[in-house]
Specification:
With 348 residues, this protein is an alpha/beta fold. Helix content is 33%, strand content 30%. The protein contains twelve helices and 15 strands. The strands form two sheets. Strands 14-13-12-11-7-10-9-8-15 form a nine-stranded mixed sheet. Strands 3-2-1-4-5-6 form a six-stranded parallel sheet, with helices on both faces. The termini are far apart.
Length: 348
């Protein structure tokens, strides 16, 4: 039973805690927060753009620490789960790795590629697992599409388009602060670059157009450039949607023998599926794969389950690869540069 220590009890820290309660081979043994109310279980002030609102949590048997140093000294903690603002990822991840703990970092791995390199190097130097929590591949719709493309059972991929749009994130000061979060082009859009790298492969270059506010790219449209000149992959992502639609995402994958489509949005406080996950076949039939409960917390449970299994076995988890997360960050930075220069940018 792997012991999990969650550092940072904001919206994502709460989601990770709720997800971990469903694990069979791991449990939260400690939390770390500067807020004494949160350490005592009063999470009523927490809210996000999906899932439940914060409530009073029963933290019986869970140690509460005000300082990460105390959590790192706890021998019951095997896996440090960092759910802190993005600009704190590098320093805290390196500190945890050097303390002999395995580390799971909520995406993105860091804000700069130099910091990402330093985290990866610290994991290697200390012989500990580094995992980055990109949850998108664990959502059933995205998991189905990824497997379908990689397996080739509907033929080769010819084109793909992804969408991820939110309203301005005024529900979280940390995320709304571009200096701390990296802005939508990193904090939000990195979901897409990671997923594209996982499913379609890492492109050789990107060409982007976008909207810049206060020096931060808040909306972009990107064409991913591959050596295969006839593979068309694109994405739209950003935080320009009005408050009545706080979240929307979806995709269309065009394969030789099928089109796979999905489109979801939250409108006026209600979730709406415009296009349920659909496999559209050449003969005109449409298949609707079974997806399970539809509870978004289950995707985080699956993600944490993979991390815990890696800790228990000592074997790296490819889905949570630090190297792939570092590459996803590089793609985002290349897109930001492309938006600001108007030119295609190679992926370094």
């Amino acid at each position: 039973m792997a012991g999990i220590g969650i550092v940072g009890i904001g919206f994502m820290g709460m989601i990770h805690y709720l997800a971990a309660r469903k694990l069979a081979d791991g449990q939260v043994v400690a939390v770390c927060s500067r807020d004494p109310k949160k350490r005592a279980g009063d999470w009523t002030g927490i809210q996000g753009n999906f899932g439940p609102k914060g409530a009073h949590m029963d933290l019986s048997g869970v140690a509460g620490y005000a300082d990460i140093g105390e959590l790192l000294a706890d021998p019951k903690v095997d896996l440090v789960d960092l759910c802190v603002p993005n600009d704190e990822h590098a320093a805290l991840a390196i500190r945890a790795l050097e303390a002999g703990k395995h580390v799971l970092i909520e995406k993105p791995i860091a804000l700069t590629t130099a910091d990402a390199d330093a985290i990866v190097a610290a994991a290697a130097a200390n012989g500990k697992l580094l995992m980055v929590a990109h949850v998108l591949p664990f959502f059933p719709e995205f998991a189905f599409a990824a497997e379908a493309v990689r397996s080739g059972r509907y033929g080769a991929l010819r084109a793909a388009n992804l969408k991820r749009v939110i309203a301005k994130p005024d529900w979280s000061k940390g995320i709304a602060d571009a200096d701390r979060s990296g802005g939508p082009a990193i904090d939000l859009h990195i979901h897409d670059t990671h997923y594209i790298g996982l499913v379609c492969g890492v492109p050789r270059a990107v060409h982007s157009r976008g909207v810049v506010e206060g020096g931060a790219v808040v909306h972009l449209s990107t064409q991913y450039l591959y050596d295969d000149l006839h593979l068309a992959v694109s994405a739209v992502s950003g935080a320009l949607s009005q408050a009545g639609r706080p979240f929307a995402h979806g995709f269309e994958f065009y394969l030789e023998k099928a089109t796979i489509a999905f489109d979801f949005a939250v409108l006026a406080g209600e979730g709406h599926v415009a296009t349920p996950l659909s496999v559209i076949l050449p003969d005109g039939t449409v298949e609707r794969p079974e997806l399970g409960s539809g509870d978004p917390i289950d995707a985080f449970t699956a993600e944490l389950g993979v991390a815990v299994a890696a800790v228990n076995s000592g074997t790296p988890a490819p889905q949570l690869s630090g190297e792939l997360a570092r590459q996803a960050l590089r793609i985002c930075h290349a897109e930001v540069e492309s938006v600001k220069t108007g030119l295609p940018v190679a992926i370094g």
